[in-house]
Write a structure and sequence with these properties.
The chain is an alpha+beta fold and 380 residues long. Helices cover 24% and strands 33% of the residues. A six-stranded mixed sheet has the order 6-7-8-3-9-10, with helices on both faces. It has a five-stranded antiparallel sheet with strand order 13-12-11-14-20. Strands 15-19-16-17-18 form a five-stranded antiparallel sheet, with no helix packed on it. Helix 3 runs parallel beside helix 5. Bound molecules: adenosine-5'-diphosphate and magnesium ion (MG). The site of magnesium ion has 4 residues, from helix 1 and helix 2.
Amino acid sequence: MSELHVMSTQQSPSIPLSAGTGTGKPLSVTKVRKTYGVMTAVDEISMEIGAGEFVTFLGSSGSGKTTTLMMIAGFVEPDSGSIVVGGRDVTRLAPQKRGLGFVFQQYLLFPHMTVGENIAFPLQLRGVPKAEIRRRVGETLEIAGLAGFARRRPRELSGGQQQRVALCRALVYRPPVILMDEPLGALDKKLRDQLQTEIKRIQQELGLTVIYVTHDQEEALVLSDRIAVMRDGRIDQFDTPRELFERPCTPFVADFLGAANFLPGKVEDSTAEHVVVRLDTGGVLRARAQDVTAGTRVRVAVQPGRLTPVAPEAGFCTGIVESVTYVGTLVRVTVLPEGGTSSTVVRLEVPAGRAPYVGDRIGLSADPGDVSVFAAGTEG
Ligand code: ADP
Ligand code: MG
C-alpha cells in the first residue's frame, strides 16, 4: 500500500522539467538506506544500471521495492547513500529536477485533457516547438499502438489503453531512465501479458533504460535483462535471469525463481572441479564447484525442471512416484525418496511422453552444473 501512501503526496503526474543527460552511467545507486522508525525499509542498497538495460526489482510485498524506486525518483528521501543519474548527483534534488520518467499502477492521466494533450504536456513544459510536439506525439502514439486515439479523453479508454497513454507520456521526451512501479498490477492476466510484450518491444525499439518493479517472477523473467531479487530491504542477487536460475547465490533466490527442491546432506569432497554431497537419503550427488568445505552440512538445491528420471539405483536417489500431473506439454511429478530419515517429496518436471506412472520406482539424476550447494543454516 505504500504506492498509495507515496502517491497521495503527489496530486498530479510528475513531469520532470529538465532531462538529466550527462556522461556517466544512466543510474548509479550507492548504499542507499531508508528507515521508518525502527523499521528498515531499504538497507544500504547499491547498484549500477547501464544504458538500454531493462532492470527489474523483484520481491514479495514489503521487501523494499517501491521505497527504493521512490528514492531514485525523488519522492522519498534516503537517510544515507547517494543516487547519481547520468553522472549527476541527484540525491537531494526534487523529483521534477531529476529528468526521469514515471509510470505507476494508477495511470494518473489528466482527465480534462485529451490523450494527445496528456502526452504533449511534458514537451510543452520543456518549451518544445509546436510542430515538433505534434510530430513526437504522433510518433509515440504510433509506437504504443494508439494511433487514432489522440482526441479521446482518458475516461473513454480501457485500463490497458490508459496505461499505454501513461507509458507514452513517460517516454515522449526520452528521459535517460524510466521508472515503472507495478504498472500492470491493476490489469487482468490477458491484458497484462499483452502489455508486457509491448513494453518490452518499445523498450528495445527505442533503447530505453527501464527500472521496473514487480512481485511476479514470470513478469520479471519476460521483461528483464537483469533482475534484482529483493528481500527484507536488501538485494539477495542482481543478475541475468540465466545466472539467477543457474547460479543462485542464496537458497531464497533458488526457491523464489526456480521453486527449487532442497535436499539435506553433508559435503564429502570439494575441489576446483566439483562438490560431492552425501545426501541424508543415502545417495551421492555431484554439484558444480562451489565455496564449501568437506564435512559441512548443506542443503542442495535443484530445480524441478533439471531433474531427470532414470532407472532405480542409477541416480542420486531412488523413490516411488507419488503423483503425476499434466500441465500443458509439461508433466509435474512428485517422488517420495527412499532411505534416510527424509520424507521430503522431490518435485520434478518432465516433458509429456516421458512421464512415469504413479507407483513406479524410479531414480533421479541431475547434471552437476544444475546443482547448487548452500551451507545449512544459510538464511532463506
Ligand atoms: P514493496 O514495494 O516491496 O512492497 P515497500 O518499499 O513499499 O515494499 O515497503 C518496504 C517496507 O517499508 C514495508 O515494510 C513497508 O511497510 C515499509 N514502509 C514503506 N513506506 C512506509 C512509510 N511511508 N511509512 C512507514 N513504513 C513504510
Ligand atoms: Mg510496492
